[in-house]
Amino acid sequence: MQQRKVLIVGGGSAGWMTAAYLNGALNKQGTEQNVQIELLESPDIPRISVGEATIPSMRHLLAVVGVDEREFMQATDATFKQSIKYCNWVHNDNSFYHHPFTSMRVQPIDRAGSDWLKSDRSIPFMETCSAQPIICEMGLAPLMLGKWDMGSRLNYAYHMNAQKFADYLRDFSVARGVVHTLANLADVEMQGSDKIVAVNTDQQQRITADLFVDCTGFKAKLIEEKLNVGFEDCSQWLLCDRAVTMHLPYDQFYPGMVRPYTTATALSAGWIWDIPMQNQRSVGYVHSSQFISKEQAEQEMRAYQGAGTEHLQARFVDFKVGRRQGNWRGNCVAIGLSGGFIEPLESTGLYLSDLGAVLLAEHFPFDDQDMEVLAGRYNRLMANRFYEILDFINMHYCMTKRTDTAFWREVQKPERITERLKAKLAFWRIKPPSAHDFQDQWYPGMATSATEIQPLPSADSRAAVDTGGLWNHESYECILYGMGFLEDECRQRYGPDLPPTGVHPAIIQRLQMARQKLPPHAIWLNRVLGMPEYPTASKPRGWV
């Protein structure tokens, strides 16, 4: 069989994650040459460089690529992430809840949700079934300095510098056989309406391939400009369309600790991410341009940190929430921003690139005659996951009880909630979420025709299915009960005299061990990775 060739157009995180994963999965980390992989990167287009938070799936990608965790963390200023802490999402009163990566499922039946609802709810729900929220609040690392002896391991992801991550994967991949071409895309040669034959560069190069991967970001130079694949706008359900970002170097603004979690704090017209790395924090205010001006948004972001940031540069990034109407058309696959975008409230920015690369390796077309069938299945899986993320992010907004600004009053309106999510929430008012809820997405009260629910804007007219593949029922319960779902109903149903909320003895034991065995996050980073020690400045004004 003739060797297949893939040309990835565009570098950045999406391009280099795709190149590295395909090389790891299809070429056994470069030890075989089953598929030729080339990446065309413009030397003139700046990357969107912000601090990135990931989810645990990133560890699978790194394992397949073949990188050493500590080497990767040193190269990308990475830190550990064990949870997302949501501040001021329910009320503007400094309240918070955690969405951790590790929880305990009681066997044989998990009644954690229903038991908590029937209690006085004096302890946050996730603290009854996970030690990680308190481990996070104590600022502890998820690993010990020595050999692990705490039973089951804590799950974690990373915070990192996305630009350094791309550079690291570039150097790692090129050393293992990936071809790197630095030049600007000048022209795309087509055969018919859906087959790319070659691309031409401004260096008079003509590059052919069997499969082309579009990683050109929002410009979508191949999938949109040449193949005319449309874009489905989802801004009706997620109103934020802009972010203003800033880096806070530790030599001036070290807060005295490195939080082992991502913080998402609700502000007047959106929310601000706070991502700690080894040398700085990245903050970014994701907001709706309909409800706040650029000047006001920048002021709110700077006020979140407090005084002294006037000399730091702020940068605005506009984005559109939605998805490509088919990530794979002909012999072109869109991965990253060219395929779609959802605001990174649950750190799914890099995840969608990760998933796109993983599914492409799994559905790789070794024969042209299989291309159409594989593309159809790939598009279905990517669409399902996009809508799963859309619903989950949408849920954070529609569950709020805030009425202090026009933005928060708007996001609660029925027309701002997806029909799929409305059906889920209605069903979960009757019974707590459970694993089987994600096997079939038809619930009582929903339309009987798929096309009346939410058709996929492509040849596949079936309704999207939330498989629970990214967030299971435990994660849904975490957000629902963290945001006061059924609070009033429980008060009416069970009355005021409820038993105290219980915590499983295993959680208490886990916390006792954590206090004794887990080092502070900054100490682990300092001793294992060589993170410098910084003088403590002041706690950010917006920290809860």
Automatic annotation (TrEMBL):
PANTHER family: FAD-BINDING PROTEIN, FLAVIN-DEPENDENT TRYPTOPHAN HALOGENASE. This is Tryptophan 7-halogenase. It comes from Arsukibacterium indicum.
